[in-house]
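Memo to structure team: turn this sequence into structure tokens by end of day. - J.P.
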Amino acid sequence: MAVPSKWNAKASSGRPLDTAAIGKWWRRFHDPALDELISKALAASPDIKTALSRIAQARGERSVQIAGLLPTIKGNTSDQIQRRDEQSTGLVTRSQTYNLSLDMSWQVDLFGRQMQNVAAATKDVQQAVENYYAAQVTLCGDVASAYISLRGTQAQLEVLHKNIATQEETANITRWKKDAGLSDTLALDQAMSTLEQARAAIPSLEQTISETENQLAVLCGQTPGTLDRLLARSSSLPLVPASLATGVPVEALDNRPDVRSAVDAVLAASHRKTEAELERFPTLNLGGSFGLEALRTGTIFSPEAAARTLAGSLLASLAQPIFEGGQITANIHINQELVKQAVYAYESRVLTALSEVENAFTAIRKTTDRLGVLIEADRAASAATVLATQQYQAGQIDLLTVLDTQRTQLSVEQQRAATEADQLTAYVQLYKSLGGGWQPL
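Reply from structure team:
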């Protein structure tokens, strides 16, 4: 495929991809709790264990294919005792015969058909390994995203509690004015309505926090509540990571396990197509047997035994398909289509990978711009709230103006907290899209 020489977002510094930093990118956030969560997830996640089990399965299937290249030898033994009674003479005769034989069969890989199966199985093993690496990348990204979402929600809850305290103070001032005859019941009801609306948002945020904590526990292979002590160490968002050398698109594709897995899938399908084509060629089968027979069990291996028989045979056959109803041709066509599908899947994976990186670059840039605007808006809203409260206490403005400035401040502060989390999540998506987070076996 034609791959761009540089990123469209112009975010690359021209330096090669920093594979050392991208390998454990979560350390760039300087958050010990996040480091420990990802370590726990990589060690205990059921998804990681499943991926490892699939590697062992693929290796076992490859061993089966290799065994098909070797002869099959079976051993047979028998011990027979016969007794004969002569009614006329009264004589009784007994005989014992012991047989030992080895049977061998071997389908010679005359045109390399079985080797194609072995080659395909080898690519299956490599694909399973790459899928394991891809599972690591996905898991690290999911844990970091969930952790940032948790901290972002906690930050919004903290903002809400701070604004509720301010609104409670405004409601108390309104109540004092009403008691002093300087205000009416309508103003107090308005203040209390705004206060209760803010309080009503608390359960929703607390529910989100609890669900995210449980999500982190599942990702780490733990039962709900196991990570509560770890997550309680801090409630602040991680630090924004420093810039990273992102290299060029081809470096990102080479570093992504899912892209490498797609390549292995194409090669495995190609080997199986070749194997299907080789079904048209003859097969060579060798068979043989070697047998040893003695009159007594104890003398079968004895050099001086006289009553002993040695027998052996060897058979070779060459089989050529003549008429099979079009089965071989149909099988070839099936495998040709499977190769095409694998190629299309690879192309889709490459395009998706390039798109994910570009989207992450855009998300970082836009969330940073939005955060800068919200920081200025937050400063203005905070100053407006303080000034409006002072003027209301002095009787210079009405209550509705104060309540409006408080609602504006709450909205801006919550948007700021959410955007800070979005910015960090965009960095996570960038590191994930660059193929960061996998550790070799």
